[in-house]
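Hi U.,

Before I forget, here's the chain from the pilot set. I'm dumping it here mostly so it's searchable later in email.
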Amino acid sequence: MGISSKNLTLDLPIFNVASRSFRGSLVPSRVGGNLRLGGKGPMRVRALSDVTFEIADGDRVALFGHNGAGKSTLLRTLAGIYEPTSGELSVEGQISTLFDITLGMDEEATGLENIELLSLSRGFSQRHIRESRDEIVEFAELGAFIDMPVKAYSSGMKMRLAFSVATSFQPDVLLLDEWVAAGDAAFIAKAEQRLVERLEATRIVIFASHSIELLERFCDRAIVMSHGEVSFQGNMNDFKRAHQ
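Structure:
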């Protein structure tokens, strides 16, 4: 059980640039990662550059950095959403993500139908869906709305349903991009309790956040990203001293 990244590099294309003259007016610069020019085809942003680390079973890793530093991109690469351009990446264990939790939701489908759609989009098995459906319905607390189209839901109700599905599975590896505040005020306390339980039970956690207080609460080591590169790796004590 573990995650290994060696010289992980990711280039993302930028399409639909207005004109070649606009391209020519640009110079290499920092836009989150490195803006890369020249040659035919689209411009590319080097979103991750030579990212190397080892994460072992039991690690709780804080992922920290400024906006555009590469935290979310790294999480999505670990989750298999982006394919690395070069380098080596090995992720062992079943992964669950807590970002983009409404991805796969169909506004025209009912809440009950969306439980299956959201579950399938996360790679859950039909067996898991059958065994978890009743618990998901109960946790979401949507009452009769569970049989109504999601387009009739408030934004808080949609988040409650999506969160209930996303946390119905106890993974080996949990990737979290900021703290999830799911639903309305009445639901948030229960959602936070479940989230804490998942964090405590998961074998490997990678938690990206701008809140040092939250990262200190749940993590024992830190990786700091800057412009798509790793600028710091170490324990939380060293991390806190460097970022006081």
